[in-house]
Structure prediction request, 116 residues.
Amino acid sequence: MTHTSTAKLPKSLGTLSPHKKTAPRSPDYLGKVSIQKPLLKLFVQQFLANNAPDELIVSIAAWQQHKDNNPRNRPFFTIEIGPHFETKPAANPEPAVKSQPSPLTPFFKPKRKDIL
Prediction:
């Protein structure tokens, strides 16, 4: 189930910061998100729907914040979760906005050429 009108929902925001690994399976990033009551109610309604699946797909977005933007003087991500949103391809795509390299860039680059 996708929710098409999210303009009335308050934003459910959080942060994600680098985490010092204490064990091999420790997370690389940790954070918190504040889920607003209207969004939680929407999620519950989706689960209670007659033909609802056993899982709920939500959208997540992240914006990189740089060291000079925060008092801790370290990079972090602001994250937002919301109802599942499917983007539609633009008829006339605009050029992408140039952004700073992400600390996650190495994570998303394949390490081996044979997996491209």
Notes: DSSP finds two helices and four strands in the chain. The chain has one domain: 12-87+98-115.
